[in-house]
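Moderator note: this is an archived Q&A kept for reference. The question asked for a predicted structure of one protein chain; the sequence and the answer are reproduced below.
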Amino acid sequence: MRTNTSIGNNLSIDELSEYAAYFLGLGLQQSRTLDIEGEDAEGVMPGLEYLAAVNEGTEVAVGRKVIVIAAETRPGCARSALRWVLTSRCSTGDRKRDAGHSG
């Protein structure tokens, strides 16, 4: 198994024939903008930057209601936001509030 390999730099296309199988993980290196009103508002964060911050262990505060507008990053962003919300709500120590009870 060979990982973190750049085709063309560390390995040529011709050398791929030496392997029985290979997976090429290709994707965006930076987020694209939607060019819509409000995408630069406070609390709005591009998906790739959000996932990078989460993976680096940087705390990214999200509210209790999160909207994820993305393509390939949508599942990862949604799961990460949900984990943060569940973790922060479970750690308040207020069982009634954590369970969604008002009184």
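Archived answer notes: Confidence is low (pLDDT under 50) at residues 91-99.
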